[in-house]
Amino acid sequence: MATKASRSAARLMISPSVFLLLGWMIIPLGMTIYFSFLRYNLLQPGPTPFAGWENYYWFFTDPSFSAAMWNTLKLVGGVLTITTVGGIGFALLLDRPMFGQGIIRIMVIAPFFVMPTVSGLIWKNMFMNPVNGIFGQLAVALGFPPIDFFGQIPMASIIFIVSWMWLPFATLILLTALQSLDQEQMEAAEMDGANWPNRFLYIMLPHLARAITVVILIQTIFLLSIFAEILVTTNGGPGVATTNLTYLIYVSSLLQFDVGIGSAGGVVAIILANIVAFFLMRMIGKNLDA
Amino acid sequence: MARAVSTKTKITNTAVAGVLGFLMFFPILWILILSFKTEEDAIRAPLEILFSSDWSMVSFEAVQARSDYFKHFSNSVIISVGSTLLGLLIAIPAAWSMAFVPAKRTKDVLMWMLSTKMLPPVGVLIPIYLIFRDLSLLDSRIGLTFVLMMINLPIIIWMLYTYFKEIPSEILEAARMDGASLREEVLYVLTPMAIPGMASTVLLNIILAWNEAFWTLNLTSAKAAPLTAFIASYSSPEGLFYAKLSAASIMAIAPILIMGWFSQKQLVRGLTFGAVK
Fold first, then answer.
1. Strand partners, A41
2. Percent of chain A with pLDDT over 90
3. What secondary structure does DSSP assign to chain A, as a single string?
């Protein structure tokens, strides 16, 4: 049983982590909120007067803001749809008896380990380049005009690349969940005459519901922060066609050096992520009790 | 009871899954092939590349010559391994105390630690950038190691916590009864049992740190740039560069690909914070 001595030792042992994380959270967060109320641009030396809600006003009324919000929504929604549906499909497939299952599974999850800048560049150059890319050459060989992916359908191309990277994640988690399904229950249902669609709808899907929720929530947290893939492929363009919220804030902070407006954007991003985090934390917290 | 599955069904499953798996893996396979070609060959038609061009190592040499590749590679190693080990050092005591001496608020503390991971990096980009500028930590390996340690610390603590939780506390109590001090208890009883869990924690966090591409891109320029940032420099091409890009990419992802294959199971646990096992 825990003694008084071990309890104070425990408090001592946990304190470095707590202090570090507390500092990591409060100091930058406080600074972001503080800066968001200042008229502060690194290119204009001099005083940084209090600006009230001015930065928020400029951030929200900037036409790129509504474009970026809409792009973020398209990116997150598109990738979530593809990876969740595809992940369920892949998981069901990989759960079936087959030869060389280990090797096939390795091939399916490999893209997850590819760093974002590499993924972006190999798809952009080796596949989506209209002249030298494989897709372009395939199109020409079949008699179609090649598509200029990042010119004609930039957002769809980014969604495609990001989905390639995250489909393995969804597959892996859903497969893990599927493998914990009670096989006897499935067999009992089969003997009672339930066909495959019914077994999927009434046994597998409810069993997977929790894992699917976790996949959606965790991916949303990461997808809201997609950055490198956009930086190396389109730089947010053409125009602002692929600028998401993260990229927009990056542009106003580190390219335009506008600390005030960048910080106001940062606060907006934090609020958005927190809405998702709230639901994710509740799921994880419930699991902690069990 | 395992049901007999006909060989025919198995072959069909294998074929369908094999084709889909191959398509997922193809981009990686393709750059592996291109990395062993010359630049002139790498932009020919795919079938010509495969069947009527020579294999060569020139691209790997060219990558090293273009800019010191191994400097960036060692930056990646130092930053990812360093941040993981540093994180481990801080996380082990915390995870230990929460797993074995739980207090009323342990659950809240754990959840709070996790919540710091939900903070979007872009929300704190400016403060971190300015602090780093003032402390001249921009483009330094120490600064980047610290940032990556901080963003992965919640995951390290959580993973260790879930692994420690599985160690029966009776064993620790027995050691304590036999007169083991706290230090001996941790060192000789807990550590040996926790090594597999710690190993997977280390593995997953090296992978995450190696592939991290927000802070590494924004806080480095040349000196401390790890591979993520180095590869990004290929986004503005100068002349022919497919084979060089492939060679650089293959060298950048190969170590992690291999580590990743070993840590599939732990990956699920680490990335879902124990919500899916």
1. A258
2. 36
3. ---HHHHHHHHHHHHHHHHHHHHHHHHHHHHHHHHTTB--BTTS-S---B-TTHHHHHHHHSHHHHHHHHHHHHHHHHHHHHHHHHHHHHHHHHTS--TTHHHHHHHHHGGGGS-HHHHHHHIIIIIS-TTTSHHHHHHHHTTPPPP-HHHHSHHHHHHHHHHHHHHHHHHHHHHHHHHTS-HHHHHHHHHTT--HHHHIIIIIHHHHHHHHHHHHHHHHHHHTT--HHHHHHTTT-STTTT--HHHHHHIIIIIS-BHHHHHHHHHHHHHHHHHHHHHHHHHHHHHHH-
The answer, yes or no, to whether residue A1 has pLDDT greater than 50, is no
The residue written with tokens 């894992």 in the block is A211
What length does chain A have? Answer: 290
Cβ atoms A234, A252 nearer than 8 A: no
Q: Rounded distance, CA A6 to CA B71, Å?
A: 46
The verdict on a CB contact (< 8 Å) between B119 and A246 is no
Please tell me the distance in Å from A201's CA to the nearest CA on chain B: 20
For residue A127, which residues of chain B lie inside 8 Å, CB to CB?
27
Q: Which residues, in sequence order, are bridge partners of residue A38? A: A50
In the predicted structure, residue A81 carries a pLDDT above the cut 90: yes
Residue that the structure tokens 């803001």 belong to: A65
Local confidence band at A208 (pLDDT 50, 70, 90 cut-offs)? confident
Interface touch A96/B17, C-beta < 8 Å: yes
Q: What's the whole-model pTM score?
A: 0.89
> How far is B78 from B206, CA to CA, in rounded Å?
10
Interface test with B, best of A3, A21, A27, A82 (most B CBs within 10 A): A21
Whole-number pLDDT of residue A2:
54
pLDDT in tens, B105-159: 888 888 888 888 888 888 888 899 999 999 988 888 999 999 999 999 998 998 8
Cβ of B27 within 8 Å of Cβ of A127? The answer is yes
Distance of CA A90 to the CA centre of its chain: 19
Q: How far is A221 from chain B (nearest CA, A)?
A: 7
Q: State the nearest Cα–Cα gap between A125 and chain B, in angstroms.
A: 8
| CB pair distance less than 8 Å for A266 and B125 | yes
Q: What are phi and psi of A41, to 5 degrees?
A: -130, 130
For chain B, the residue count is 277
pLDDT averaged over every residue in chain B:
85
B65-84, pLDDT tens digit by residue?
877 888 999 999 999 999 99
Nearest Cβ partner for B126 among A96, A101, A253:
A253
ipTM over 0.90: no
